[in-house]
């Protein structure tokens, strides 16, 4: 019985490899499983590809395609897929914090026989076994029922399935992992890019002047190029699917952890921005709202920040966030509607476009750099979109379309907002819209509704990564709720402590987005493909790194200085 359980765990572990290997190479998969089972790893398989070696692997054991997904964070692929509305294999959340990537890890072994049955009805084999496999199927179900934290997205090994049923399995794999069309991928990409950053583009022109639009266009061009570099990195080695995988291939485990932390901090900062945004806009709608408890009086900003937190917290406890994923896809519509409302207020409701503004405001350029940089903070999701495409050769065109359309929306909102409000432009153009106009209320309520649907999807990747670190006997429903609730409360405390929407956005854009979007893609590309890169690729990457580091230093210093000045 113990040997059969071990065999099943090894088969589950090799499924990722099977996803990327032709069916005509079953011997390679068997050899890999034998090496895992023997525990020696002394022999290398030439058919599995010696080019899969990573800096963190020993010279004698080249990593397989699944080795990149066996280290923290193992939940990144699935959690980011649902954040970006990418269709991901059978996904539910609470009760499955470590997801399907745990396979034969020490956490999985600790779960066996120790956890109660919660979602066993969801854990079912992909294909019905034949009569000759009934006993093996029964044993497999017993093991799966005792492993409630494993996601039911693993496919059975090809060797476990009769020959006549293998084509069905292959068809399911293709439809699961690679089924996004060109249009779906573009919508997903725009949904990621066109978030709350569009609200601050008029404020960015106020800070830097009209010349700042050149910075926006430059950042758009460089973001497209670095996105293509990420694609080159993903294609360089088998098994790379996410941004942390690229960091792993480039700089080993240290690179994987560093990039993961940067990505998660960026998501965490977005959640803080959501609460500040909700507080500011609801206070505009209800300026006299307040709450008095004894001798303590909460003004409208504090009250609405707390109220928003109370509303979004239960959404982070949901087992299945797919419903919120579909709602959050309306972010594209919300962004377009916001720009339309801004134009309507200026052209139809006679607010006018009379302000000329300044051509260049040099002291405000560092803040403008951070605000424009924040607009292109989608590179943490682009590898997932690429991995989900039906035709991956379309990715450069998809990326160009996403960034191009987003830039048009950004520039349109920036020009109209600044022409309408001039030097009175606030950090969110919705705060400048006249209160008596119906179109203003439409814009504000649209702005308020969108972050509520996105908050849980944004905080869940960080929460799931932290849940992976919990001891196996502590990964219970109640503990998971406590972790997620603590994260939500912490974002509230920071939002109340630093309630400066534009400056926080500039800080995130300067420090985190410069790393994720510009610096790290070039560094990873040079580390992985340094021998194949041409001289002009090396020159372009070096230029982007210098620009990214310079903008990060200047923008971060200016943002922090302005935040401190607002306190003093």
UniProtKB/TrEMBL annotation:
Sorted alphabetically, which Pfam families does this protein's record hold?
Aa_trans
Instruction: Pull one GO CC term from this UniProt entry.
Output: vacuolar membrane
Positions of the Amino acid transporter transmembrane domain:
179-559
Subcellular location(s): the record lists: Membrane
Region feature (Disordered): 1-72, 129-149
Q: What is its main location?
A: membrane
Chain intervals with Basic and acidic residues compositional bias: 131-144
Q: Which UniProt keywords apply?
A: Amino-acid transport, Membrane, Transmembrane, Transmembrane helix, Transport
The UniProt regions of compositional bias labelled Low complexity, in chain numbering, are 41-54
Q: Report how it sits in the membrane.
A: Multi-pass membrane protein
TM region(s), chain numbering: 185-205, 211-230, 257-277, 289-312, 324-345, 365-386, 398-418, 481-501, 507-529, 538-560
Q: Could you give a GO molecular-function term held by this entry? A: L-amino acid transmembrane transporter activity
Q: Which family does it belong to?
A: Belongs to the amino acid/polyamine transporter 2 family. Amino acid/auxin permease (AAAP) (TC 2.A.18.5) subfamily.
Annotated protein name in UniProt? Amino acid transporter transmembrane domain-containing protein
Task: Give the originating organism.
Answer: Panicum hallii var. hallii
């Amino acid at each position: 019985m113990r040997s059969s359980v071990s065999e099943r765990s090894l088969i589950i572990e090799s499924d990722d490899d099977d996803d990327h290997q032709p069916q005509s190479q079953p011997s390679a998969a068997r050899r890999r499983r034998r090496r895992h089972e023997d525990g020696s790893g002394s022999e290398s398989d030439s058919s599995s590809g010696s080019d899969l070696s990573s800096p963190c692997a020993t010279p004698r054991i080249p990593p397989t395609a699944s080795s990149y997904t066996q280290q923290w964070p193992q939940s990144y692929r699935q959690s980011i897929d649902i954040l970006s509305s990418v269709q991901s294999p059978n996904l539910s959340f609470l009760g499955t914090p470590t997801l399907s990537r745990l396979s034969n890890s020490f956490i999985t072994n600790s779960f066996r026989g120790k956890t109660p049955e919660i979602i066993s009805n969801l854990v079912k084999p992909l294909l019905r076994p034949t009569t000759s496999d009934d006993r093996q199927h029964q044993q497999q179900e017993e093991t799966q029922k005792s492993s409630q934290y494993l996601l039911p997205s693993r496919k059975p090994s090809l060797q476990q399935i009769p020959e006549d049923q293998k084509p069905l399995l292959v068809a399911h794999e293709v439809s699961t992992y690679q089924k996004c069309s060109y249009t779906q991928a573009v919508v997903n990409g725009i949904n990621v890019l066109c978030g709350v950053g569009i609200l601050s583009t008029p404020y960015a022109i106020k800070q830097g002047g009209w010349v700042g639009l050149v910075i926006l266009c430059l950042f758009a061009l460089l973001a497209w190029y670095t996105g293509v570099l990420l694609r080159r990195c993903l294609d360089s080695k088998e098994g790379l699917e996410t941004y942390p995988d690229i960091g792993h291939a480039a700089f080993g485990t240290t690179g994987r952890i560093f990039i993961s932390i940067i990505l998660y901090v960026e998501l965490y900062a977005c959640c803080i921005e959501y609460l500040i945004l909700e507080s500011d806009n609801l206070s505009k709608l209800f300026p006299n709202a307040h709450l008095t408890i004894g001798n303590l009086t909460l003004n409208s900003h504090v009250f609405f920040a707390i109220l928003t937190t109370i509303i979004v917290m239960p959404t982070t406890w949901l087992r299945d966030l797919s419903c919120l994923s579909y709602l959050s896809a309306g972010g594209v519509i919300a962004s377009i509607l916001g720009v339309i409302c801004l134009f309507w207020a200026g052209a139809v409701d006679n607010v006018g476009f009379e302000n000329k503004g300044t051509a260049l405001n040099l002291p405000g350029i560092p803040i403008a750099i951070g605000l424009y940089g924040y607009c292109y903070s989608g590179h943490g999701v682009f590898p997932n979109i690429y991995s989900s495409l039906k035709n991956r050769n379309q990715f450069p065109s998809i990326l160009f379309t996403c960034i191009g359309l987003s830039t048009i929306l950004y520039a349109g909102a920036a020009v109209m907002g600044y022409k309408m409000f001039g030097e009175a432009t606030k950090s969110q153009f919705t705060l400048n819209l006249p209160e008596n106009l119906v179109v203003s209320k439409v814009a504000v309520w649209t702005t308020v509704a969108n972050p509520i649907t996105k908050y849980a999807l944004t905080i869940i990747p960080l929460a799931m990564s932290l849940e992976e670190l919990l001891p196996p006997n502590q990964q219970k429903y109640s503990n998971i709720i406590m972790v997620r609730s603590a994260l939500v409360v912490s974002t509230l405390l920071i939002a109340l402590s630093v309630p400066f929407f534009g400056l926080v956005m500039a800080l995130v854009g300067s420090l985190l987005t410069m790393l994720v979007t510009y610096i790290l893609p070039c560094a990873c590309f040079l580390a992985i493909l340094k021998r194949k890169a041409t001289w002009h690729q090396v020159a372009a990457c070096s230029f982007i790194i210098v620009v990214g580091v310079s903008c990060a230093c200047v923008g971060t210093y200016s943002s922090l200085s302005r935040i401190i000045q607002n306190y003093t």
